[in-house]
Amino acid sequence: MHTTSPVAATPTAFIRAIVRAYALRHLSPNHALQQAQIAPHLLENPDARITAWQMERISDTAMRELDDEALGWFRRRLPWGSYGMLVRASISAPTLEVALKRWCRHHGLLTADIRLATSDGDNRQSSDSTSPPATHGHGGATFSITLDEANTADWLSGEMREFCHVSLLRNLLGVASWLVDSRIPLLGVELAFAPPPHASAYAVLFAGPCTFDALRTRLHLDARYLQLPLRRDEAALQQMLTHALPLTVLQYRRDRLLVQRVRQTLAAQPQLTRNAEDLAALLNVSARTLHRQLKEEGATLQALKDEVRRDRAVALLHRTDRPIKQVADAAGFQNEKSFARAFKDWTGQSPSEFRRQHALIS
Asked: Please, what sign has the CA dihedral across residues 9, 16, 221, 130?
């Protein structure tokens, strides 16, 4: 008995792609459909959806029956265990950045039909050495993974091509999150195909903005996570490989850099982060999720806000002669009175007293 959510969100277009993989090998998909409890008539309904459990089940069965973890995407099969081998080759890396670069380079040894390449924010191709990341629209650095089709084939088109691109990106993101045991914010996805009829499903497939009709398929990640050390060993890998497919359909809850991200966002945009809802929107999570994850990390939003506001206010009182009202506004307070009250709680002095004392010491 399975206990995963019964919510059906995965489009049946991906199931039709799997059925096509069977047809390419002149085999019947009936057993795989039965194992996943998918009625054949659903495949003719463009609006039909299946659950994450059903997607996991049919994918697992098909990969074993076809002995192809790529499910027909490439001109040669990727035998069972191929992607596990990529994880094993990456797990000894010192950081996530090195692991992802290894993964992409080694994937090219499995097939020449697609090429995965890493780059920093200015789209320069990266090597195994660390290069300085460029800034992205979210205010920090970004790290991108690009998928290029090196050998275009007629059979890699339509739903099969979409399924290939989506699966590879989701697999990469899932493995990366598993390696560092952290949810990695997805800054955006560019997809080199037109919006499909089931485009609304992409809000579930990717927890970040999606752009269709792009020149190249590309995944953009928050580069701050690249220097996290890997937290998995061979024993953890063996356990994961017995139940690996959920990595591509379930999102991590833990975010090992959430406290840092909150602190940086509060400091960079004080006027836009005066309440939890606004801050959560900037971080692409719900306010409820924000509070829960901070609690898991042993922090509270109020404590982080106080820390950032205090540091900003102290710096401005030390280094500038701005009026107290302007300091209050710059620190993210609604008015001077609430700022003065909070500052006295932090330091035991009013802002004016603190500034006078500092001036005397100087």
From this structure: positive
User: Which residues does 321 contact at the CB level (< 8 Å), separation at least 6?
Assistant: none
How far, in Å, CA of 196 to CA of 212, rounded?
A: 9
d(CA 199, CA 161): 15
Q: Is 184 exposed, middle or buried (0-12, 13-18, 19+ CB in 10 A)?
A: buried
Per-residue pLDDT at 360: 55
Place of tokens 């206010």: 313
pTM of the model: 0.73
What would the pLDDT profile of 223-268 be if each residue is shown by its tens digit? 999 999 998 888 888 878 777 666 555 566 677 788 888 888 888 8
Inter-CA distances, 352 with 320, 337, 348, Å: 13, 12, 12
Instruction: Supply the pLDDT for residue 2.
Output: 38
Q: H helices of the chain, where?
A: 13-24, 30-35, 52-66, 82-90, 96-110, 158-180, 202-205, 234-241, 258-268, 276-282, 287-296, 301-319, 324-330, 336-347, 351-361
Q: What are phi and psi of 189, to 5 degrees?
A: -130, 130
Residue with tokens 């994961």: 240
Task: Tell me which amino acid residue 234 is.
Answer: E
Angle formed by the axes of helices 96-110 and 82-90, to 10°? 150
74 pLDDT above the threshold of 90 = yes
3-state secondary structure at position 39 = coil
Q: By the 8 A CB rule, do 121 and 135 touch?
A: yes
Confirm if 254 and 183 have CB atoms less than 8 A apart.
yes
Q: How far apart are CA 271 and CA 269, in angstroms?
A: 6
**4, pLDDT greater than 60:** no
Contact predicate 54/88, CB 8 Å: no
Contact 279, 315 (CB under 8 A): no
Helices (H) and strands (E) in the chain, counts: 15, 7
